[in-house]
Write a structure and sequence with these properties.
The complex is a heterodimer.
Chain A: H1 2-21, H2 31-49, H3 55-78, H4 80-87, E1 91-95, E2 98-99, H5 101-107, H6 111-122, E3 130-135, E4 141-145
Antiparallel strand pairs in A: 1-2, 1-3, 3-4
Helix pairs in contact in A: 1-2, 1-3, 3-4
Chain B: H1 2-6, H2 20-46, E1 56-61, E2 64-69, E3 71-73, E4 78-85, E5 89-95, H3 96-99, E6 102-108, E7 112-117, E8 120-126, E9 131-140, E10 144-152, E11 155-164
Parallel strand pairs in B: 3-11
Antiparallel strand pairs in B: 1-2, 2-4, 4-9, 5-8, 5-10, 6-9, 7-8, 10-11
The chains are: A alpha+beta, B alpha+beta.
Keywords (chain A): Cell membrane, Membrane, Transmembrane, Transmembrane helix
Protein name (chain A): DUF421 domain-containing protein
Family (chain A): Belongs to the UPF0702 family.
Chain lengths: ~150, ~160
């Protein structure tokens, strides 16, 4: 029972923290972010396993975590509101070459992030070549180029 | 309200559910949670989860002083330190229900006698005159609130902990 509760508590806490940090928190991982992730992984592992390093403990824990994840994905599929609450919704950041500054500020995305995505996905050179830039639910920026280009 | 005013409304041709009002609500919640997170960090630094000014407790009575942590964490060792002056015999009576929630790792000095008496476990130290420091090293084995009274040479000391899971 204790193992189950530990698994649920850690799962829900991480879900909450990463939701608070926003979509862009892990979309682009810098070297330091990667180190930070390793540290979080290590701290989480100790909290989950405690002093019990048996194979059984690890297997039970993996099953619990995967089980919770499965339940959540089923619920998200069934209840749209829950899906929106946990995963968010896409957000348009550029409309016909015009950056939407208010939205970008709230989503913590700057012009450089959008131009980087435009260069990487379509080889675009200027903002005016972008018809729409959308911050997707997974934190990636997708670019729809203007049809004239 | 401010965010709602500065967010641009877009009439787009994309097949996507933007749900802007939901986004605005989400940003508001994110901001509030961000502030709460910072407050939590400050309180953590101050000792809300142990080792800090919010957690440290000191009780003085006559020639006895006890120092302990108010906030403990499950399976994280803690120390209850006693300083006793001018006694040639120090007798601790610790409630058994208190010790049921802890594992006694070590008691320093270790030349003590133990007795079991009516719901208490007694530890008796024979000392020469002067100041004596006695330390109990304990590991919490149960989470939750606990308030118990230790008796030291007949004096009662209330020891209160909150043990985080």
């Amino acid at each position: 029972m204790e193992l189950f509760l530990r698994g649920v508590a850690i799962y829900l806490f991480l879900l909450l923290v990463f939701r608070i940090l926003g979509k862009r928190s892990l979309a682009e991982t810098t070297t330091f972010d990667f180190v930070l992730l390793l540290i979080i992984g290590e701290a989480t592992q100790q909290a989950l396993l405690g002093n019990d390093f048996s194979v059984t403990n690890a297997l039970v824990l993996i099953t619990v975590l995967m089980g919770i994840d499965m339940v959540f994905s089923k619920l998200k599929g069934r209840y749209k509101k829950l899906d929106r609450l946990l995963e968010g919704t896409p957000l348009i950041l550029v409309e016909h070459g015009k950056p939407l500054k208010g939205r970008m500020k709230e989503a913590r995305v700057d012009t450089e992030d959008i131009m980087e995505a435009a260069r990487l996905s379509h080889g675009l050179e200027q903002m005016k070549q972008i018809k729409y830039a959308v911050l997707e639910r997974d934190g990636q920026i997708s670019i729809i180029p203007s049809s004239s280009d | 309200m401010q965010a709602r005013d500065t967010i641009e409304r877009v009439d787009h041709s994309l097949e996507l559910e933007e749900k802007l009002d939901h986004q605005i609500k989400g940003w508001k919640v994110q901001r509030i949670c961000g502030v709460l997170l910072l407050i939590l960090i400050v309180f953590t630094a101050l000792g809300l989860f142990g080792s800090g000014i919010l957690s440290e407790r000191e009780v003085k009575k006559n020639n006895m002083v006890v120092q302990y942590e108010r906030f403990l964490r499950y399976e994280n060792e803690t120390t209850i330190g006693w300083l006793v002056r001018g006694q040639d015999r120090i007798n601790f009576l610790i409630p058994q229900q208190y010790l049921n929630k802890f594992k006694v790792e070590k008691i320093v000095p270790d030349n003590y006698e133990t007795i079991l008496a009516d719901g208490y476990i007694g530890y008796t130290f024979k000392v020469s005159t002067g100041e004596t420091a006695i330390r109990f090293y304990l590991t919490p084995k149960k989470a939750g609130t606990m308030v118990d009274v230790w008796k030291v040479n007949g004096q009662s000391f209330e020891i209160a902990h909150f043990i985080y899971p």
